[in-house]
TrEMBL record:
Subcellular location: Cell membrane
Native species: Acetobacter oryzifermentans
Main location: membrane
Lipid bilayer topology: Multi-pass membrane protein
Keyword annotations: Cell membrane, Membrane, Transmembrane, Transmembrane helix, Transport
Statement: the UniProt record of this protein carries the keyword Transmembrane: yes
Designated name of the protein: Transporter
Upper lineage: Bacteria, Pseudomonadati, Pseudomonadota, Alphaproteobacteria, Acetobacterales
Transmembrane helix in keyword set: yes
Signal peptide (UniProt feature, chain positions): none
A Pfam family recorded for this sequence: FUSC
Residue ranges of the TM segments: 44-66, 95-113, 119-139, 151-170, 182-201, 417-437, 443-460, 469-490, 502-533, 545-564, 629-646
Length: 744
C-alpha cells in the first residue's frame, strides 16, 4: 500500500512537471500577475461578479417566463446598472430610470412626427443624441463613466435610438415597442437593486466609516506636498498631480455614501466641506511658497515654527485614523496657531518700535516685514486645517438639528458641450446615410450600435481612447459568443441548462469589470454578450443570425473609433491653449468685475483645470510644455486669490492715498492683462513691482498700527503676484501658443 502511495505521488509530480513544461517551457515560470483578476480575485470582486451574474440570469429568466419579445435587454440592463457598492448601484439605477423615461417619450414623439421621411428621420435621431450629449456635458461632476448624472443622459440617448430605430419598421406599433423596451429596463433595474440589497450588511455604518477614511486618505496625500511647501519647494503641488485628482474623486464619492446612509444628518455635506478645505489649504501653501522665494525671508522664528508644524502634520493622519478623541488634536493645532500669531505680532511690534525711534535700519526692518508675512501666511494655513478637521469631526459624529449645506459645484464648459454634441450627431447621421445609400439589410442594427457608442462615450474628454478599449471588449465578446452560439447553446432545451452555460462567461465579465485596467473592455463584453447570444423562447441564435449581428457590431465599433479620430479629434494642444486664453481672460475680468466670484469657485475651477491637464495624453517631446501649463494653472489660481485680497484691502479704504493709488494702478493694468510681451504683460509686472517698492517705503515710516497691518496684507499679496508673474513668465506669454519658444 505504501509503495502504491509513493508511485501515485511520483506519477502526480511527473504529470505536474510535464504540464508545467508544456505551458511555460523549460525556463523559469512566467509571471501571470496580469491574469490575477481571473484566477485569484479578491473577495469583493468575486462577490460583485457572482451577485451580478445571478441578478442577470434571474432577470433573463423572468423575461423568458413572461414571453417578452427581446428578453436579452433585461439581462443587459442589469450589467449596465450594477456597480461595486450599493450607493453607486442605486444612484445609477435612479438616473438610468430617469433617462429611460426621457428617451422613451422623445422616441415616441419622433416616430409620430415623421414616419415617412427616412433622411429627415435619421437627421432628427442624430440631433436627439447630440442634444442629450450636450445636456450631459453641462451636468455637475467630471466627464467620467462614474458620473451618473451624465449617465442619465446616456441612458436617454441609447433608449431613444433603440426605440426610434425599432419604430422605423413598425411605426403603427411604436407605443407597444416603447412599452416593451421600458418593461425590459424596469425589470432589470428592479431585479438588480433587489438582489444587491440582500448582500449588504451594516450599510449605514460602513458608509460613515468610509467618509472618515476618505478624509484621512486625502490628508495623507496632501501632507507630503504641504511639507515640501513649508521647505520652499514651490513645485511641490505641480509635481504631485494625483493630490487634486484624489480630492475630486473622493468628493464625488460622497453622494454615494449619502445614499447608503439613507436618513442622515448632513454628514455628506460636512465631508465635502472638509475635502474642499484641504484644497484651500493647498492654495494657502502656494502663497507661502511664493513668499519663501523672496530673498532673506526665512528667519530663525519661521524655521523653528515650520519644523513644529511639520512634526504635527506628519503625525496628524494617524491620529485621525485611529478614531481617537479630536480635542487633543485641535488643542495642539490651536497652540501652533497661537505661536504663529505671537511671533508675527512680535515682528510687527519691533517694526513699530523701529519706525517710531529713528534712525531706521532698513535691512532689519525689511527682514522683520518678510518674517511677519511668512508667519501670518502660516497661521492662515493652520486656520484652514483647523476648519477641515472640524468639518471632519462633524461628518464623523453628526449633531442633531444640523442644517449645514455644502452642495456639489459644477463648472460648465459650453464649448466642449457643443463639440461633443456635434461629434455625436455627425457620426450617427453619417451612419444613417451609409444605410440609406447602400440599402444594407442589417443597416438598422449597425446604426443602433453606433448610437449606443455615441450615447455612451461622446461626453468623455477622450472618446477615441475609450472606444478603442471598447473595441477590444467587443472582439472578446464576439469570440465568446461564437463559442456559445455555434456549439454550446445548441444543446440545452430548458432554461436551467442555458443559465448554467451562461453563468461562467458572465462571471468572467464581472471579474474583468472589477479590475480597473479592464473596465471599459468589460463593459462592452457584459453589454453585448446577451445581445449576441439572443435567448428566446421559440428558437435560438443560429449561424446566420449570429453573423448578421456580430458583423454590424464590429463595424459599428470600428466606424465610431475612426470618426472620433477624424472628426473633431481630441487635440491636447488646442485644449491647453483654450484653457490658457480663458485663464488670462478670467484674470482681466477679476480685476475689474463688480461682483467677483467666491474664493471656492476660483479654487474649484483651477483645480478642475489642473486635473484635466494632468490627465491629458502627451508625447515625450511635450513633457516640458505640460509641466509649464500645470505650473501656470496653479500660478494663475494664486494670482487670482491675491487679486481678491487686494480688492478687499482697497474696499476698506484704510491705506494712505499714495499707497492706495499705487495698488489701484496695478489693478488697472491687470484689467488689460493680455499676456503678450511688449504689451500688458510687461506693464502689469512692472506696475506690480513699483507698487511693492512704494508700499515698502510707506510701510517703513507708518506709525498707525491698523494702517500698517493693512499695508502688510497688501504688500504680501503684491509680492506673491510679482513672484508668480516672474516665475511663470513662459506660461503668461500668450504670443507663444504652445510654449514652443520657451521649449527651444
Amino acid at each position: 500500500m505504501k509503495s502504491m502511495t509513493l508511485s501515485l505521488g511520483q506519477l502526480w509530480r511527473s504529470v505536474s512537471i510535464i504540464v508545467r513544461q508544456a505551458l511555460v517551457g523549460g525556463g523559469p515560470p512566467r509571471k501571470l500577475d496580469h491574469l490575477r483578476w481571473l484566477f485569484a480575485p479578491n473577495l469583493l470582486s468575486f462577490g460583485y461578479a457572482l451577485r451580478t451574474t445571478i441578478s442577470s440570469l434571474i432577470a433573463l429568466g423572468i423575461a423568458l417566463w413572461w414571453e417578452l419579445g427581446s428578453p436579452q435587454w433585461a439581462a443587459l440592463t442589469v450589467w449596465m446598472v450594477a456597480q461595486g457598492t450599493r450607493g453607486k448601484s442605486i444612484a445609477k439605477a435612479r438616473w438610468h430610470m430617469f433617462g429611460m423615461v426621457v428617451g422613451t417619450i422623445c422616441a415616441i414623439v419622433l416616430v409620430a412626427s415623421m414616419p415617412q421621411s427616412p433622411l429627415l428621420y435619421i437627421f432628427f435621431v442624430a440631433v436627439g443624441i447630440g442634444t442629450f450629449c450636450f445636456i450631459g456635458t453641462l451636468l455637475p461632476g467630471p466627464a467620467a463613466m462614474t458620473n451618473y448624472r451624465i449617465h442619465g443622459m446616456r441612458a436617454s440617448g441609447f433608449t431613444y435610438v433603440i426605440i426610434a430605430l425599432d419604430g422605423i419598421v413598425a411605426p403603427d406599433h411604436i407605443f407597444q415597442i416603447a412599452m416593451a423596451r421600458a418593461t425590459y429596463i424596469t425589470l432589470g433595474i428592479v431585479v438588480e437593486t433587489t438582489i444587491s440589497s440582500l448582500f449588504q450588511y451594516q450599510l449605514g455604518l460602513r458608509a460613515r466609516t468610509r467618509l472618515a477614511t476618505n478624509f484621512v486618505q486625502a490628508l495623507k496625500g496632501a501632507v507630503p506636498a504641504i511639507l515640501r511647501l513649508l521647505q520652499g519647494d514651490r513645485r511641490a503641488v505641480a509635481n504631485s498631480p494625483g493630490v487634486f485628482s484624489t480630492l475630486i474623486a473622493l468628493s464625488d464619492q460622497v453622494e454615494f455614501a449619502e445614499i447608503e446612509m439613507g436618513k442622515h444628518q448632513h454628514e455628506g455635506d460636512h465631508a465635502r466641506a472638509a475635502l474642499a478645505a484641504i484644497t484651500v489649504l493647498l492654495s494657502r501653501g502656494l502663497d507661502l511658497g511664493a513668499l519663501l522665494e523672496v530673498p532673506h525671508s526665512q528667519g530663525v522664528e519661521y524655521q523653528d515654527t515650520a519644523q513644529q508644524v511639520s512634526t504635527f502634520l506628519q503625525a496628524l493622519p494617524d491620529r485621525l485614523d485611529n478614531d481617537q478623541p479630536i480635542e487633543p488634536v485641535l488643542r495642539d493645532l490651536t497652540s501652533l496657531r497661537a505661536t504663529c500669531r505671537q511671533l508675527a505680532a512680535g515682528c510687527l511690534e519691533k517694526e513699530m518700535e523701529a519706525a517710531t525711534h529713528p534712525p531706521l535700519d532698513e535691512q532689519q526692518d525689511e527682514v522683520l516685514t518678510r518674517q511677519g508675512q511668512l508667519l501670518h501666511k502660516l497661521d492662515t494655513m493652520l486656520e484652514e486645517l483647523y476648519l477641515a478637521i472640524e468639518q471632519f469631526e462633524m461628518s464623523r459624529n453628526p449633531q442633531p438639528h444640523d442644517h449645514f449645506r455644502y452642495p456639489m459645484k459644477s463648472y460648465r464648459d459650453w464649448r466642449m458641450a457643443f463639440t461633443n454634441s456635434l461629434r455625436a450627431s455627425v457620426t450617427i447621421f453619417l451612419a444613417g446615410v451609409l444605410w440609406i445609400t447602400t440599402a444594407w439589410p442589417d443597416g438598422l442594427t449597425f446604426i443602433m450600435f453606433v448610437g449606443i457608442v455615441c450615447a455612451l462615450f461622446s461626453t468623455l474628454e477622450q472618446p477615441a481612447l475609450a472606444t478603442q478599449a471598447f473595441l477590444h471588449g467587443t472582439v472578446c465578446v464576439i469570440g465568446m459568443s461564437a463559442l456559445l452560439d455555434l456549439w454550446v447553446m445548441a444543446q440545452p432545451t430548458i432554461y436551467e441548462m442555458m443559465a448554467m452555460c451562461l453563468a461562467v462567461p458572465m462571471l468572467i465579465g464581472g471579474l474583468a469589470f472589477a479590475w480597473p485596467p479592464l473596465v471599459l473592455a468589460a463593459v462592452a463584453y457584459n453589454l453585448f454578450l446577451p445581445i449576441l447570444v439572443g435567448p428566446i423562447n421559440q428558437g435560438r441564435m443560429d449561424e446566420i443570425m449570429y453573423f448578421n449581428t456580430a458583423m454590424p457590431l464590429l463595424l459599428a465599433m470600428m466606424f465610431c473609433m475612426w470618426m472620433y479620430r477624424v472628426f473633431l479629434p481630441y487635440d491636447p494642444d488646442g485644449l491647453r491653449w483654450d484653457m490658457r486664453v480663458n485663464i488670462l481672460r478670467g484674470l482681466r475680468r477679476l480685476a475689474g468685475q463688480r461682483r467677483p466670484p467666491a474664493v471656492t469657485e476660483i479654487i474649484g475651477r483651477s483645480v478642475d483645470g489642473f486635473v484635466r491637464l494632468s490627465t491629458m495624453a502627451t508625447d515625450d517631446g511635450n513633457t516640458y510644455v505640460l509641466e509649464r501649463y500645470l505650473s501656470g494653472v496653479l500660478s494663475s489660481m494664486t494670482i487670482a486669490l491675491n487679486v481678491l485680497r487686494l480688492r478687499t484691502v482697497l474696499a476698506k479704504n484704510i491705506l494712505p492715498l499714495e499707497a492706495q493709488k499705487a495698488v489701484e494702478v496695478m489693478m488697472e493694468r491687470m484689467q488689460r492683462f493680455t499676456g503678450r510681451y511688449g504689451g500688458q504683460y510687461g506693464r502689469t509686472a512692472r506696475a506690480t513691482h513699483i507698487a511693492v517698492e512704494y508700499l515698502l517705503n510707506c510701510e517703513e515710516t507708518e506709525a498707525n498700527l491698523s494702517v500698517r497691518e493693512e499695508m502688510l496684507r497688501a504688500l504680501a499679496s503684491l509680492r506673491v503676484i510679482e513672484t508668480e508673474l516672474a516665475e511663470n513668465r513662459a506660461f503668461f506669454d500668450a504670443s507663444s501658443p504652445y510654449l514652443d519658444k520657451a521649449f527651444t
